[in-house]
Amino acid sequence: MTDLFQQFLAAAGDVFNAHGPAIQSAASLSPTDFSIRFFLQLAIIIAACRVIGWLGRKLLGQPQVVGEMIAGVVLGPSVIGLAFPGFTATVFPPETKSILYAGAQFGVGLYMFLVGSTLHLDHFRTKAKSAVGVSIAGIVTPFVMAVLITPVLLQVPGLFAEGISQFNATLFMGACIALTAFPMLARIINERGLAGTSLGTLSLTAGAFDDAVSWCVLAIVLATFGAGAGVALLAIVGGLAYAGFLFLFGRRLLAPLGRAVEAKGEMSDTVLGITLGLFCLSAFLMDAAGLHAVFGGFLLGVCMPRGLFAQELKRRIEPFAVVVLLPMFFTYSGLNTRLDMVNSLELLAIAIGILAVSILAKFGACWAAARLSGEDNRTALGIGALMNARGLMELIIINIGLQHGIIGPALFSIMVLMAIVTTMMAGPLFELVYGRKARESGELGAIAGDGAPRTA
Fold it and tell me: 450 near 383, Cβ under 8 Å?
């Protein structure tokens, strides 16, 4: 059976390698070609994410979301593309990336909209002191570490763009280390049974704030690196103004949607259409401001009515968003990832050093801040473990850095390795320091076989 499978892979590789480059070199693709490849891409993406996610849960004890992140990398040039170059050229030609990108942003934005709509703000009010402390520690410490390590990195040729200032390089590294995988953190919290708990809400709130600061810092780097001061000004001022408007007036303006659902006992297609239209508008505004669609979705979700409205919204949207749309987000990022770039002992040592600094700056700092804010040691360790995950939000920010010439391919690959390792360690580390005892005591429900938490 093994020999037969290997023969099949070899034959498939010969076919892709023979025909892939010819297809990739075509001057353009017709609308029909785009359609054919899109449905094939989607079928492969869904299958790979479900299978690798299942294997990750069974063999490694990882949440489904981590398996999906790995699946995205596997489908890209680092694994399948390395073994069968024609596969990537045939199934994921560059001309189709724009469609995959749009679907990816829609998926991750919609999921964060759902997360915001189920966020328990009362938990945040009772944990405001801890959340602020964790957020500040998760921002300040990474930037202090960036100040210390960036001069060393600048001495290694090829890591940063030639001629980049130490100021820009330091800001970029600080933003990368300070980043928390907000969408991935939300799914880990959901799958580990933390949705609605004070620990989960505190971690999500701190993670959202840290990510927002990281994106604003990135906007400053882009502005001072040639994109123009207007980029930074629009991102910071526009984001704050929109958030302030929603928090001041959003709940009052959106309350009629909740009353309509309560009156009918279910969410009508009209209410669903209005809600999705508002989500798209909110995502557009944050994207146009230079931040990211996820923040538009999350901010609007926080202001949505609770009760039956939130329950109906989750019932009607979540399955499609999780099973179909989010895997597109992971795969798109994976297609831009190259893990074969760390090819020397010097770069390996730098990769290990950056990994150690990144863990200390997030896990260590957030744990210390939570303890100083009055949390018990077990809860503080759990917060630190969750905040340390970077995920594919990290890949997005370093892809931007690579595309704008801020960093080189070698540093890009090192940061990819850091993102994967810190994300993979988040779930097991959380279970070790918090989850296992919490489940034994009944504070949390057991994790079901499909990765979703059972109710206690």
Answer: no
